[in-house]
Design brief:
Number of helices: 6
Length: 268
């Protein structure tokens, strides 16, 4: 009997502490509280590490200052590159891909640019002539430009030795060697080629009527009727052997260069 009692007492001593620990709610609460604090601490540390240091922000400010200086330098360079004196074109300025067009023969034109896509014939009553007097012209159209040949009073074919009388740049696929190209804005033209006026072709003042006469002298009526504004660039006499006055009429549409017409302002 004593042995059984001693054995029961020993069992109570061994198992009671374990049961007491499992049933203590304060210990359970402390365990989760400690884990929660540990997780929050890790999160806070991570957020602190993600905040950029003051030295990093300082570098960004310095980069911005340098960027502003570069922009100011670009603006200064642009002002220096802006042309103030009106540009006058020379003979090579109106080449296309380093090849002459004006006064080039028909044979040379075919050699340099191939056969035209289209040929149109016009019968024109030139200015300052009798109403029954006519001249014949043929316009050879390429992709981006067209060339005009004067055939005289007879309706004939273009000969190999005939020379180009006038020409037009008709789209952005072709540009003159001086850099003039269809698609340029009026601001770009003024910046690169100097200050010049924009004329109303359909106006009644002397300049407007002059431009209209230049355009329509050797073309059918209404050939350029879709345009109402134009600018003029004149030639540099010192850069041509031929002293006859020459000009480029820049036809403007929606503040952009839409067509370039080479012509002779003083032609009959």
């Amino acid at each position: 009997m004593k042995k059984k009692l001693i054995l029961c007492v020993l069992c109570s001593v061994v198992f009671l502490p374990a049961c007491s620990n499992n049933e203590n709610p304060s210990n359970v609460k402390d365990m989760y509280t400690n884990n929660s604090v540990s997780e929050n601490s890790t999160s806070v540390n991570t957020n602190i590490d993600s905040i950029p240091s003051f030295s990093s922000q300082g570098d960004t400010v310095e980069e911005n200052l340098n960027s502003n200086k570069e922009l100011e330098q670009m603006d200064n360079n642009q002002e220096k590159n802006t042309v103030t004196e009106p540009f006058l074109f020379g003979e090579k300025d109106i080449y296309i891909n380093n090849k002459p067009v004006l006064n080039s023969t028909y044979a040379q034109l075919i050699k340099d640019f191939g056969l035209p896509k289209e040929i149109n014939k016009f019968k024109i009553n030139p200015p300052a002539t009798e109403e029954d007097y006519f001249k014949y012209f043929k316009v050879l159209a390429y992709d981006g430009f067209e060339c005009e040949f004067s055939l005289g009073e007879e309706d004939s074919e273009v000969e190999d030795t005939d020379n180009i009388f006038r020409f037009d740049i008709t789209n952005e696929k072709v540009q003159l060697d001086c850099g003039l190209r269809v698609g340029m804005t009026t601001d770009e033209i003024l910046s690169k080629y100097g200050k010049r006026d924009i004329y109303n072709i359909n106006g009644t003042n002397e300049d407007s009527e002059f431009i209209k006469i230049i355009l329509e002298s050797y073309k059918p009526d209404g050939y350029y009727s879709e345009y109402s504004q134009a600018m003029i660039i004149y030639f540099d006499q010192d850069k041509f052997e031929d002293p006859l006055a020459k000009a480029l009429i820049l036809l403007i549409n929606n503040n952009k260069l839409d067509r370039i017409v080479f012509c002779y302002p003083t032609a009959e």
